[in-house]
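Thread: Newbie trying to understand structure tokens

Hi all, I'm a second-year student working on a class project, and my supervisor (Dr. K.) asked me to get a predicted structure for one chain before our next meeting. I've only ever worked with sequences, so writing a 3D structure as a token string is new to me. If someone could post the tokens and maybe explain what I'm looking at, I'd be very grateful. Here's the chain:
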Amino acid sequence: MKAISKWLVYLLLGILVITQIYPLFWLIMYSLKTNEQILGSSFFSLPTWPQWGNYRDAYKSGHYLQYLGNSVLVTLVTLLCVIVLASMAAYAISRFKWKLAPIVSLIFLLGMMIPLQATLLPLLLIFKNLHLLDTRWALILPYIAFSTPIAVFIMSGFMKGIPAEIEESAFIDGASVYRIFRSIILPISVPPIMTVVILTFITIWNEYIMAATFISSEKLKTLPFGIYTFVSQYNVNYGAIGAFLVLGALPVLIIYFTLSEKITKGMVAGAVKG
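---
Reply by user tm_fold:
Sure, no problem. This is what the structure looks like when written as tokens:
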């Protein structure tokens, strides 16, 4: 009976792996075909001869490096701000004894429930009055606001489980609150920080709605917005479109598979200590 249950689990996991990996595999095969093969061959067929020129066309004609650079800049600035703000807020909520801590924590939880689409019009009017439309700050500021609540939730759950004796010993030795936070709490909190980094990175990197609403200049478009522009411009070259989609997904895949172990450890640590 145990052997049957074991094989059923393996079968279920195998099905899940295939259903998750096959779309990416199909997209890669799609990007290596000619228009004739895409329109005339079977949906599941392999390319008769790989068309690597599709990637060359996508790279040169699609302004890939420009869109990639914009996404990297916006993502890095947002990540830095989210980590700094969320770690300090989580430390204050989880380690300090003050009356407003539950209320502040509740405010952050409510921030996780606000749908992004509901804020587009108010943000559009605010940024227009502040002359921030069609600037990188029109993306960075909302990204920080929407990413910070979940980051605070993850890191505060972890920090609540840190033994108080560590801080007490540091206080006795004369360390200030800032020194304790910088030299003790942050190094201990690396697992949840890495979880926040990966989740925030994936969310921001794939975000399209705000980029399409607040950005109009070609030089400021991020990669998802650039993909949409490329698809609209080269709607007859299906292979190049597939190649650009692969190039757009490549950074996320590299980051995720490189740091996948970190995110698992961070989730487990937060669940156990929180």
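A couple of things are worth pointing out once you decode it. Residues 112 and 146 are 7 Å apart (CA to CA). The chain is about 75% helix and 0% strand. Feel free to ask follow-ups in this thread.
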